[in-house]
Amino acid sequence: MEVVAQLPFRQGALQTAPRLRELRSLGTVHRVRTAMGDEAWLVTGHAQVRRLLDDDRLGRTHPTPETAARTGETLFDAVLGDFATEAADHARTRALLRPHFSPGRMRPLRPRVEALTTRLLDELIEHGPPADLHAMVAVPLPILVICALLGVPYRDCERFRAWTAEAADVGDPARSQRGLAELYAYGHELVARKRVEPGDDVISRLCAAEGVSDAEIAGLSMALLFAGQETTVVQIGMGVLLLLSNPDQWRALVHDPGLVAGAVEEILRASNTGGGGIPRYARRDLEIDGVAVRAGELVLLDNGSANHDPAAFPDPDRMDITRPASAHVTFGHGLRYCLGAPLARIELHAVFTRIATRLPTLRLAVEPDAVRMRPDAVTGGPAELPVRW
Amino acid sequence: MRAVPVWRTTVDRDRCMGSGVCVALAASLFVLDDERSRAPVEFVAPDETVLDAADSCPARAITVTENGRVIGPRD
Lengths: 389, 75
Hints:
Chain A: Keywords: Heme, Iron, Metal-binding, Monooxygenase, Oxidoreductase. The structure holds two protein chains of two kinds. By secondary structure, chain A is of the alpha+beta class. Chain A has one domain (5-388): CATH 1.10.630.10. Chain A is 48% helix and 9% strand. Chain A has a six-stranded mixed beta sheet, with helices on both faces. Chain B has one domain (7-72): 2-Layer Sandwich (Alpha-Beta Plaits), CATH 3.30.70.
């Protein structure tokens, strides 16, 4: 099939690229070329993406990684894992981590997250307008929470923030690799410390589990440290941006903070306008919506596009905090559904409830289009949020 | 003679977020129906997979009971 688009699409933070919009109207599976020049399938339909997120004919590994099509150059785009044992390896890791991130385990954290949010908003209010809500709330909150959960000293935050930023740099593979190496070294250092002085935290509990090597715990810890902050930072930032650029929705939430659960799901749905997606490799030949995909080919499950499929979400470009939005696929679907989803939801509920009640007159200090975004980061999102109230 | 224990599985469809984790773990015990999960067979023989599904539910929507006593989720 002919290549119909080159990735990445050029688009604003809150708008879908015109070419992507056109492709979505033509079908659900598209032949594209990645930023690396490799060919891939971009799947944009909600029903297809959701089904394929939980289809064992697709995986994250490749039998011959050196020949595999790639999405980008950072290590996040690298083909990792063993093709033969992928399903068993995934099940093992999942079983190892699951008890530490279950809703039951997360629930007692709620008051702590709420207290941290209150403290950060106190500082913002004391600073006075104009202020950067990104730097003062969106960035520190998820880091404080994940540090407390994992048992990572918050005083080290400057160091690992710099490394994760380097690791996520899509424009500079050498820098990305360096950042990741520093992070893993730091992970090893932490594991060594927890072996001697265990605390009431996830890393200490993983150290106490049988049959888990220090290298594995260090790797998992740093993956959790990265995943636990970057993604939520982006969702808080995008949520503020979405709400403040849709003043009617912001007013609705201020008027009734009880709408927060729906608002959070709508933010999760609307925050990604598509064009990228979760990379998978076909483990064998399969057909997606009538299109033949060969074993070994790269398939991008575009969850942002799926979240904007009018068949699943009528009038998808409209932000509506009262719509039923929880069928979004931002956390994935099925076996690989995001382990951190319960924690992320607690953080997002705390932030948006408190912002709406304490800063009802909140507004952007610049035009929405003038908000600087992070073009080089894997996870995207705003680089700043200048606000007044 | 003691009766063979029977487990009862219920899904709180108001809490369910349709993550599909339970269906992925135990396709014979859960189905997604209108974006929400339900357990088509309410009473089942004891089966570790049911408890795994209850533990894994990100919405904590699945409850497993044995003779009225809650045994899952286990955390």
